[in-house]
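Hi, here's the filled form for the chain we discussed.

Project: internal
Contact: R.S.
Residues: 733
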Amino acid sequence: MSVQVEKQEKNMAKLMIEVSAEEFGAALEKAYQKDKKKINVPGFRKGKAPRKMIEKMYGAGIFYEDAANIVIPEAYAAAAKECAEEIVSQPQISVTQIEEGKPFIFTAEVALKPAVTLGDYKGVEVEKSVIEVSEEEVEKEVDKERENNSRMIDVDDRAVEKGDIIKLDFEGFVDGEAFQGGKAEDYSLTIGSGSFIPGFEDQLIGAKIGEEKEVNVTFPEEYHEASLKGKPAVFKCTVKEIKVKELPEKKLAAAKAALASFREAGSGVLILWGYGALCDTLRPLCDQKIYLDTTPMRAMLRLKRGEYRNIGTKKALAFKRMARRCYYVDFEVAAKLRFTLLHEKQLDSYVIANDALSMSLLPASLLEGIFARAMEYPLRCKPVYLEGVWGGYYIQRLRGLPREMKNCAWVFDMIPMEVSVVFELNGRKLEFPFYTLVQSQGPKLMGKRSVDAFGYYFPVRFNYDDTYHSNGNMSIQCHPGEKYVTENNGELGRQDESYYIVETGQGARTYLGFQKDADVEEFIAEARRSEKDGQPVDYQKYVYSIESKPGTQVMIPAGTIHASGQNQLILEIGSLTVGSYTYKMYDYVRKDLDGNPRPIHTYHGDQVLDRSRTADWVDQNLVNGGRRTLRKGKDWEEFVVGEHELLYFSLRNERFVTAIEDDTAGDFHVLTLVDGEQVLVRSKTNPERCFLQNYLDIVIVPADFGPYEIINQKAGTVCVEHKTMLKPAGAGA
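And the returned structure, exactly as it came back:
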């Protein structure tokens, strides 16, 4: 290896690094040995094809990129040491020459430590100033900081109180007649400000949004309008909106003041840690900003071990209560802060903190580089397996889960807020929350159309519901629509679902909608009665069901009563919900795995149930709805298995014997191998960018991936790839 240093302006330098042809040849061989098992060459078993044969088939440069990645870190480290310059930045690498049999040449642009010439500083006398700050002055600065960092919060669950900022419609009357200037709409008024007629604001205390209230006042004698001086008046008022100014706690403002003082004094190194250490108030004062991240599953395990407390709490609560608060509050708060830090490029470092005893610190640039590289490949998330009272054994046996795990009910193969992704860097496995990847690479992963519509949330979720050889059905349940979620939970999205029936056993049925002549109100009354007296309900009298057959696609728009019956495996595909809102209407009077009664939600279910979705409508609209062929060839076909006007995603099957080609064309594809043993999902332009997919693996093909092919790895068999994507533009929903 040799290195040449070319100094440039502004303390920059370019290192020209040359690696011998022999070293680069050895790296090529390493790359071949690493990648050969991933590459399929007709006539050879996987991993047995000679290197020259692979290069002939896929091009001489198939291993160049991986070989360069092997060579560069070590060569750069040696060059940096040899050049005798004090380098103070990460290198910007550019490859100049890469070809087998020739030296490998690349450049590294780096920043050098600047040379500083000191002036005549010795003997200078500095007078020490003593500044005394009173408690009153400190308090004033704290209050100023609180005001600067305040925000307006909507209030809709109470009446007007003193200090509220309200939006008001009013009209004033004197002697029964409206007077000029006495009417306004959307008038903003702070209750208690004294900016209106004396007594007016106080009488609005207790008023509720939307209710009309009469306010009786007397204009003061010194009122500017002569005709109204001293006159009694009646104002008909309607409060339209209540807001309250939320000030940061004094502790936060005081922390900022203390941090600023410490920094100005230059007293030493201050490490600030804990929830909110990088919040808007404190972040501008930080010299190094480091974000510690953990996957939701690891957080839950810590919660169970008593190693975690909810944000803002000082003592542990019951596990289930803390877990719910994590999902609906803590995780979302952390995610919003993380999004800001990633998108405003405010992070210096990122820490994988899944294991408190073995954490990994990554420069922010490296984190971004890892995620950007991931977008060049199809990828699969790390599943999460959860037990449930109605759980079965299909997935447990298929994937060799531990024998002690019973009742495997849910398999979260791609629930964006739950799962993680694992990447390997220099032999070390790094596990990130999948949501972090989404926030970093949203447009590349999901596509512009998805980001424009749903923001930086992956808009579809995937899980398996396993009742195969179980002891019962899923609960009879329903989910809310967008209006109900927004009004009651203040969140984005509606909860639509779909079932793709993968495998069935004897007597399997899927429950969907109401029987043709069902008395829905009687069913709700019976469900409530059952919850009180513990006696079962003849639910089949009210709830319609179909015989479950593999390959059937069932659409479940929000408001549809439904359940997966006993003895089947369901691929459940659902729409975006930040939180998950399942309203169980009936659960067969059974207890949960912890021995406690299962919660029932008939109040909410009653509010969102669509009573018009009965048997005939279900058969015509929700079972295999919109099934049609889109394209076909000699031994392949793509066809729609399910679409509905209320759902924004399209569900398709790609059936093939040898291979099938496709193109993301700027939108994500999610592929599930529902029939067949193994396929290779591979880029058409860069074949080395591929993923080996096994039966029931769920694989994401990023929006930026472009043209790709799916190749059957088991000759003579038929494969079926279930594909989920956004509906084509203009298709509705």
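Let me know if anything looks off before we file it.
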